[in-house]
């Protein structure tokens, strides 16, 4: 990865970043389960049977059995989660900390009573402090490493016999942005075979050029901005911005049963890279390792790809809160798009990435004003999104509500995708490939754009 991680050269220290979080998700979830007394009893009664219930790696399970906390952290464990395992064994936090230092319990306590470990000589790898050198290891970890080394050696010998391959060079780049409404009734029409009914024909006809364009310009990854509709996020937790970093995402049951669409395959490495980069650019993201995706994500996928047995691209879901106020401003979303572009362009793999903004256009789903549609305002929004996005980003929340309806605020998500385009950073204006507008799809005006970055 091109992203700098300056903490990697701090001796005896594992920083729990987005990569570690993704890698250790199920290990840490297992540890969390030990907060319930009945689970602790089950684990102590038969460790292997209990561990078999969790989709951890074999190495993670081996680290748990060995109670080797250094090893567990290497595989993605976080000390606050691993402390639940130590508590199950009746250990204090001081005993757990001491176990990772190579000291005896008494030696560790004596060090702490004397004032603790000094940072002198322990700030950078290679200094002369007392925390330098390899981590303390159990015999089980050493045996695992020896076996792994033998397997790696055999794999290298085998690969050496194959024809050499030249690695592709370059960085990821955003080639286009796609904008689309994500009306749930569109998904229902697809799922129930109603796309040829007179009511629906004009809408789906408007996306036919987009499907052909997508066949000719298929990306490796789609960074898809959408909002969760009280599906994965209830009122217990309401993240303003949340990025999905898992390897796959199940279609959610929104009350009618899950949609009959394929699982969404993620790109965990790029997602974790984007999360770290964007947070370092002072945008606060929630990192989500377990996420079910609703119609907000799957309907645009159908509109652009049809109904394949498997989605032909990897997807990074990016949720924006537009359900409960306060919601992020248009300017904040536009600036976030610029940070996402910088993050993607710093990823050192030559990936073709598209960024999609979904939701909207004008619609209101609640109260006596339900059914509001404002065609003129919607089309001016499309004009301005193409030609003057920075000015459009200044539109206030109250204008969205008054002119585009209470749920029209979803359009701020389109500004994230627009902010990621090259012209915003001084490049050439994008090429307008396709524009489409239709009223109605159930309760909603439907808008759609495809913009290509130009070299």
Can you characterise this structure?
It is a single chain. The protein has 455 residues and is an alpha/beta fold. It folds into 2 domains: 6-160, Dioxygenase LigAB, LigA subunit (Protocatechuate 4,5-dioxygenase, Chain A, Orthogonal Bundle), CATH 1.10.700.10; 173-452, Protocatechuate 4,5-dioxygenase, Chain B (3-Layer(aba) Sandwich), CATH 3.40.830. It is 41% helix and 13% strand. The protein has helices spanning 18-23, 25-33, 37-45, 47-51, 58-66, 69-74, 79-88, 93-99, 105-113, 139-160, 184-191, 201-206, 208-216, 268-280, 295-305, 330-345, 375-387, 389-392, 397-404, 412-419, and strands at 173-180, 221-226, 241-244, 248-249, 264-265, 286-288, 314-320, 352-358, 431-441, 444-452. It has an 8-stranded mixed β-sheet with strand order 6-3-7-2-8-1-10-9, sandwiched between helices. A two-stranded antiparallel sheet has the order 4-5. A hairpin with a 2-residue loop joins strand 9 and strand 10. The model is unreliable at 163-167 (pLDDT under 50).
Brief summary of the model shown:
The protein is an alpha/beta fold and 455 residues long. The protein has two domains: 155 residues, Dioxygenase LigAB, LigA subunit (Protocatechuate 4,5-dioxygenase, Chain A, Orthogonal Bundle), CATH 1.10.700; 280 residues, 3-Layer(aba) Sandwich (Protocatechuate 4,5-dioxygenase, Chain B), CATH 3.40.830.10. Helix 2 runs parallel beside helix 7 and helix 8 crosses helix 9.
